Amino acid sequence: MALPTASRIRIVLIGTTHPGNIGAAARAMKVMGFDRLVLVSPKHFPSGEATALASSADDVLAKAQVVETFADAIAGCPLVLGTTAHARSLPWPTYDLRGAAEHAIDESHHHEVAIVFGREKTGLHNDEVERCHHIVTIPTNDAYTSLNLAQAVQLMMYELRLHALAASDQTTPAFTPPSDWTPQPPEQLEVFFDRLERGMLNVGFLNPAQPKRLMQRLRRLFLRARPDENELNILNGIASALLDAPPKKAGQANASSGQENV
Ligand code: SAH
């Protein structure tokens, strides 16, 4: 059965080393009814090994999009879910596999969704997690949590399929966003983060010698809030005001606004 919103869900593989995993991931996607694969700087692609492991999913490989950066891969996606076996030192909002699949399918009725998988050896890097709204953990044996990449993709695709089929029986959608909420794609948020960072540097709130985790915490805050277009305009206005304010050196900012707790 065709899944109504499969075309709004893209599977992103970052820096894949073994082309066989790309092929096996394509197969995992196709058997569950999905076909949008995005590869960020794969080590070897196209590759005979990928095609062999894809089996009859070579059409998914043929139309896979290859991009250079993670930002390119998630452009236009107001919801980005990153899969990882690891807790992070700055804890990030986390779904388990099933919850993530439900969330992804529900939102795919309204906009584009990206589900991101990391490198075989090193997984997702922190700066990539910091661009995801939520992270997704596949429940595993505590003593050994790391699945093979293509197997992790397979489990995700299966859960997406189950939820997509269940959701297609419902007469009313499980999730309807407020009618005036237009969640923004990552590229719009990045413009704001960059302006905010420069603004905070300008007024001495952010100390470049000791940035601590100020930006990471603020990224987490705004990714959690998922500001819409109007809200982002307001936030950009505030950041611009910081940028245009008379410059101060770090430490000259009001003591109550320092970075003690970041
Ligand atoms: N050694 C790497 C493991 C990478 S496995 C690490 O320490 O991060 C390759 C990818 O498969 C991961 O980046 C993640 O996207 C996915 N993956 C593997 N096991 C997972 C799990 N238990 N939960 C969620 N994703 C997992």
Bound chemical compounds: S-adenosyl-L-homocysteine
**CATH homology-level superfamily of the largest domain:** SPOUT methyltransferase, trefoil knot domain
Radius of gyration: 20 Å
The helical percent reads: 40-55%
Outline the biggest β-sheet: 7 strands, parallel
Please work out how many helical segments DSSP would assign: 10
* Overall domain count: 2
Shape: globular
SSE series: EHEHHEHEEHEHEHHHH
The appropriate CATH architecture of the largest domain is: 3-Layer(aba) Sandwich
Coarse structural class: alpha/beta
Span between N and C termini? 49 Å
The percentage of residues in β strands lies in: 5-15%
The CATH topology of the largest domain corresponds to Alpha/beta knot
Low-confidence stretches: none
Brief account:
The chain is α/β, with parallel strands linked by helices and 262 residues long.
Outline the fold blueprint.
Elements: E1 9-14, H1 19-31, E2 37-40, H2 48-54, H3 58-62, E3 65-67, H4 70-74, E4 79-83, E5 94-96, H5 97-108, E6 113-117, H6 126-129, E7 134-137, H7 149-168, H8 186-202, H9 214-225, H10 229-244
Parallel strand pairs: 1-2, 1-6, 2-3, 4-6, 4-7, 5-7
Describe the structure.
With about 260 residues, the chain is an alpha/beta fold. The chain is about 40% helix and about 10% strand. The protein is built from ten helices and seven strands. It has a seven-stranded parallel sheet. Helix 5 packs across helix 7 (about 150-170). The longest helix is centred in the middle third of the chain and has 20 residues, at about 150-170. The chain starts with 8 loop residues before the first strand and ends in an 18-residue tail after the last helix. The site of S-adenosyl-L-homocysteine has 20 residues, from strand 7 and helix 7.
